[in-house]
Design brief:
The complex is a heterodimer of chains A (332) and B (77).
Chain A: H1 3-16, H2 24-54, H3 59-66, H4 71-84, H5 92-101, H6 106-118, H7 121-131, H8 133-156, H9 165-181, H10 196-231, H11 236-241, H12 248-256, H13 263-275, H14 280-292, H15 295-301, H16 307-331
Chain B: E1 4-7, H1 12-27, E2 34-37, H2 40-45, E3 53-56, E4 59-63, H3 69-75
Parallel strand pairs in B: 1-2
Antiparallel strand pairs in B: 1-3, 3-4
Classes of the chains: A mainly alpha (332), B alpha+beta (77).
Chain lengths: 332, 77
């Protein structure tokens, strides 16, 4: 299905630019052309169709749906919604508060907020296009497990104890009033049932918006991947990190903290690391850490969480990524 | 029309929204301040879950995206 992009890259690299096929430059350029064209083609088409389906899904409806759901089920549901709901991470705090006002426990809310940056339709499309369906499924399952387990863990330790007071109060009040009157807090929303033209307009706008936002990340991510691909000496990564030394996993998780990328930009880098021989577990640990453990996210969450909870949350995430890394290095 | 508030977290979209509205007001010769409120308790007060959001005279008129120029214009017709 994707050979056309290889052929395009072949033509541009070897014919148009006449680069010698044995050089590092050729490898880097070929990788860059093939990946960027494949990615943009995939994005444009698939985002449109997916947005068509998602047009009437928004956080207000998710909140209404999650309200009052049984705990075990709710982590799973919240995580799935986190993966598929169109959601800008700058709305993390309003969503956190809005969910809390509906009496939705911290763990369920966090299952949604943790899964959201890790899994989005763009990342999934890229994974599929670059690394195949098997890897895509693994990544999705892992992303959801991080959200589900994270949510469960936070409720287990009664994380609501360590919220900032205004958030804690909102949650407590909502849960108390639910117990008394079964009362309901409606969020403000401007959506009603969606006719097709509206869906089409939404899908078109989403496509332009996402491609417009994401193209820089794609170029940077693919550029880094290409540089890695072409210029890190063959076998260097395999020689130094390919033996799955136990320490390489926590090190790569820690490296991922100061680095920040959204899920889109990191995937071409992931592809390149894997091709160059970095073990799958180490790669997953590094990439997930880069995406999910980030300073921007921490700064946002600090508005509703006390330092202690923030520290616990991040420690939990880093531990989870390290475990994922170790397990996959052993299994694969 | 007395007050215009943009609710958000201070990210790029919120500033864009604020700037667009200010520009439109200037075009129409209206002298109203556009306030950017990044306090999360404010979004909570207005029961808004998606930012940027726009509140005019205590009524929420737009949620979840940077409003188009046409939309902004319609608020001041």
């Amino acid at each position: 299905m994707f050979t056309i992009f290889t052929q395009l890259a072949d033509w541009v690299t070897y014919q148009l630019l006449s680069i010698d096929s044995d050089t590092h430059l050729a490898e880097a350029v070929h990788f860059f052309i093939e990946d960027t064209t494949k990615i943009f083609a995939l994005l444009a088409v698939m985002i449109y169709f997916i947005a068509l389906l998602r047009a009437s899904l928004n956080v207000e409806r998710v909140r209404d749906y999650l309200e009052g759901k049984n705990k075990w089920f709710s982590y799973f549901l919240a995580s799935i919604f986190g993966a598929i709901t169109p959601f800008c991470s700058c709305s993390s705090i309003p969503v956190f508060l809005g969910f809390s006002l509906a009496g939705i426990p911290v763990g369920t809310t966090m299952a949604f907020l943790l899964t959201s940056p890790l899994i989005n339709e763009v990342a999934v499309l890229l994974l599929f296009g670059l690394l195949g369906w098997k890897f895509t499924i693994i990544y999705i399952v892992l992303g959801m497990l991080v959200g589900i387990f994270g949510g469960w863990f936070l409720d287990k330790i009664h994380a609501e104890r360590w919220l900032e007071s205004f958030a804690a109060d909102a949650l407590k009040e909502a849960q108390d009033s639910k117990n008394k009157t079964g009362g309901d807090v409606q969020a403000v929303t401007t959506d009603t049932k969606m006719p097709f033209e509206e869906r089409h307009e939404f899908a078109k706008a989403e496509m332009k918006d996402i491609v417009g936002r994401v193209w820089k990340w794609v170029f940077i991510g693919v550029g880094l991947g290409a540089a890695l691909h072409g210029f890190v000496p063959d076998g260097w990564i395999t020689a130094h990190l390919g033996e799955k030394q136990w320490w390489s996993v926590p090190v790569s998780v820690v490296l991922g903290i100061p680095l920040y990328s959204n899920a889109t930009g990191i995937i071409p880098v992931m592809e390149s690391l894997l091709i160059n021989g970095l073990p799958i577990g180490t790669t997953l640990a590094f990439c997930m850490s880069t995406v999910a453990a980030s300073f921007p996210e921490a700064i946002l969450l600090k508005q509703v969480m006390q330092w202690k909870l923030l520290a616990i949350l991040f420690s939990m995430l880093l531990t989870a990524f390290t475990l994922i890394g170790w397990i996959f290095n052993i299994l694969m | 029309m007395k007050t215009i508030t943009v609710l958000g977290s201070g990210c790029v979209k919120c500033h864009q929204t604020q700037d667009l509205i200010s520009a439109m007001l200037k075009d129409k010769g209206l002298d109203i301040d556009v306030v950017l409120d990044t306090n999360p308790a404010s979004a909570m007060k207005y029961k808004v879950m998606r930012t940027p959001a726009v509140v005019i005279d205590e009524k929420v008129v737009h949620i979840g995206s940077v409003p188009s120029k046409d939309t902004i214009s319609s608020w001041f017709d």
